[in-house]
Amino acid sequence: MKFSENWLRHHVPIEASRDELSATLTAIGLEVEDVTALGDSLDGVIVARIVNAQKHPEADRLQVCEVDTGKGLVQIVCGAPNARAGLVAPLATVGATLPGGIAIKAARLRGVESSGMLCSARELGIDADASGLFELPADAPVGAPLADYLGLPDASIEIKLTPNRADCFSVRGIAFDVAAALGGEVRALDAVAVPAGSASAMEVALEAGPRVPRFTGRVIEGIDAHAATPVWMAERLRRSGLRPISFLVDVTQYVMLELGQPMHAFDKDKLEGGIVVRPARAGESLKLLDGRSVELDADFLVVADSQGGGGARAVALGGIMGGADTRVTDVTRNVFLEAAHWIPSAIIGRSRRLGMHTDAGHRFERGVDPSLPPIAIEYATRLILDVAGGVAGPLLDVTLPGHLPEPQPIVLRRARLQRVLGLKVADAEVTRIFTALGMRVESLAEGWQVTAPSRRFDIEREEDLIEEVARIFGYEHIPTATPAGALTLAAEPEARLGELAVREQLAARGYFEAVNLSFVPAELLARWGFDRDLVPLANPLSADLAVMRPSLLPGLIEALRHNRARQQDRVRLFELARVFAAGDPPVETPSLAIAACGSARAEQWGEPGRPFDFFDLKGELDALVAWGGEPQRWSIHADGLPGWLHPGRGARVARDGATVGYLGALHPQLARALDLGPDVHVLELALEPLLARRLPRATAVARFPAVRRDIAVDLPEAVAWSQIEQVVRATLGGLLRELRLFDRYSGKGVEAGRKSLAMGLILQDASRTLTDDDADRCVRDAVSALEKSCKARLRG
Question: At the top level of its lineage, which domain of life is listed (predicted)?
Fold first, then answer.
């Protein structure tokens, strides 16, 4: 928000200097980003008129001008392209010193005497325009000091507003905060009702429901469209960052900056019938004031007239921009002024969808005072009648009862205020602060009952009132105290691994931790086949951040792809974070994901290179599972795979029979869609099952030796090792201390569709030494169980 310092002081007279005002604005939460001084050191600069302009005899680009100073004529040599007879412009007289230190002296330019300098806006330090002389209105008082005529010196102040302070998108909104902080009082607004001079009016119908609960308008006839914008208004607009265009347009901009209510002026003669405020129709198009045509849908709201039928033609894009077909021009004689209340949810995001940004949309997205439309219309009407003449019709104020927000009283407890701030603020000071901010205050035994003005959408509860007292009273007055309290050091449960231990384990194994956003593009999830139980964002920052991630892998693979695109062939990444699934509220699940590609070992000479494969990834899982001390509770299965895994090189991971994740190579189709090679392997697990571990227990070293027996069995290819291990462990019970798979063979001597697995049985009894008969019986039992359950055959 940019505004003129003098304009602000007009609404709230204060004695504070410019530096004090800037410091105060920042201290109360309206951070000053820039202060540009305007028109300092203009002593000796006056309003002058060029009486005659002749070409310089010795220079093609110079003119010799006779200039009326109000006290006589002086000769000025000028090179400005717009210098001409009759032009009124600023003149720096001899002896003046302009901003920047330019001293004005009498001089000879190419042999011609020059007694002063006609100035551009940039040379005067009041604008950046240096294209020519600063043109003043023809009726400007010749000979008057320029600073007096333009209301200088001044400053253009730009502040950065937080989204909750929509009320400060106006000079008067800022004035109330300044009055409260610096002890001033905001002047009453001269917006008395303008009596109707004609019966001319337009019918208004609200068909958008609670999204537009108020629409105010008025017809003004017989306007002089060529009326010039008054200098004081044009200068206030210019110093607020807006270029004056034409009086009717400038009035609506001026009222928006001063009061905070966006407005629009229609050429009434280009409107047909009544006004209808309605949702846009699918495929409906509208040509806007900036010349572009936009296609709309039912999410947008429009102002329409009756051309072609009731509400058939859209003439403005509600809350954002007017239409080109009904805009005011230099031949407009009759206007229809409009000011409406569009609720924020009806406007938020609409401008961004169209790739545009407007001052009106920016304000309506954050919230505009619902009581302002009739005030703004009356205020603008008076300005128009005073400058451009005309006759005003009756004020039309159409509302939907029950849908206009009404401020509710809030009780602020004195004890609560003191406890939160840590100091006692005098009752009189609290009352003064709320009153200066435009709030209604009633004293209660326990504190105050405060009703915020309708422009303060951010005041909803007691804590908001406490914040108002704190920021106006001054954060510097709140005592600084070191928090005190007893801290208890909680012991880490031994039955659970810490997340840090997992991170350290993976880092030690050569993996780098990635941290990705929790939001992902919907298009990316569609590629992976994630189309169920998604959690979309109601108001995403962009289309690429529209859905909460249901899996860590899409983001992690994008990070891997980013690294590979930068000549990193061997990539190892992991991420510990939460994933989200639909629910009320959404379900958050801590997860671990791993992505790896490239060679299995870093480049070296000790062994031949080979690519990272499924069994390398399973080894990483085994290393993590081993930390829990119960690897027998984990199993790997080839069924139930998601669509993003390679069907022949993927597996489902289970703990105690329940699925907790998946691992394997990416599906070739997905790898091609993501522009990846065929060697990318991934793992994703629910984190909590991985962190759970058996409680450590010390046991005596076995007194009796272990016995090993090796067996080789021939069994179907489809039988997984996890099934074999489960059968053997269940059969041998406590005698089996360890089961080791040390060979796998298929080929000559083994039937097609079958494989041979060789395993070692480590047998041990805690109470005695096992005999050969005991070991042989265990082998027979294991083989028999495998024959029944796995269709296995003992190989000789």
Answer: Bacteria
